[in-house]
Amino acid sequence: MSRPLIAVTTSQRSGWRIFPLVWFNLWLAGARAVRWGVGRPADLGAVDGLIIGGGDDVGPELYGGVLGVSATLDRARDDLERALATEALELGVPVLGICRGAQMMNVAFGGTLDQNAWQTFGKAEKIKTILPKRDVEVLPKTHLARICGPELMRVNALHTQAVRAVGAGLRVAARDTYGMIQAIEHQADPFAVGVQWHPEHLFYVRRQRLLFRALVAAAGAYRDARAQVEAVLENA
Questions:
Q1: pLDDT tens across 95-113, in order?
Q2: What is this structure's pTM?
Q3: Using CA atoms, how far apart are residues 137 and 12, in angstroms rounded to an integer?
């Protein structure tokens, strides 16, 4: 059987260097990848799964925040990814949100973001490296714990914003040791997990590769009209 096809949204500025990393992780996990973004074709009916990638801050107007607070915005990308995240939920397409993508996923489910997360969690020093420097506590009895294991996880964390109020149907799957939400997940089908770190840069860590493997398992189940979360947990 052919590999599932996963769409990957990227920014126009950094997509050229990020997409190959995501492509590599998906290839290792048994899938193919196609790059989407502003100005590129994007048809969820043609793919088996979706990754919403990292990049600029999510525009605060999408969740009732205050305009002008976010440092860098890409409203065209906001519109595209908000529409894709919403449509994916409606169609049942499995989703993995990475950094900004996790935040956009939360907004699409009706959640909100903390625009000044590093001020809210004042003792948490902002990290500016792709190297794993942040300790994350995976919550027990979550899909993430089944997928990656319940042990303390060392990740990178380059985000400025963070998930605040979790959207409908979602739950917190991990927090860092300062209490900041670092992962969210959909409790039922369709499979949807969002992480605020960058697992694509940590392909040398087995637990991070398992995130992509989980999405591929869900994408295969979606293609075959089978239960996605069940397929992911059976594959874990």
A1: 999 999 999 999 999 999 9
A2: 0.94
A3: 33
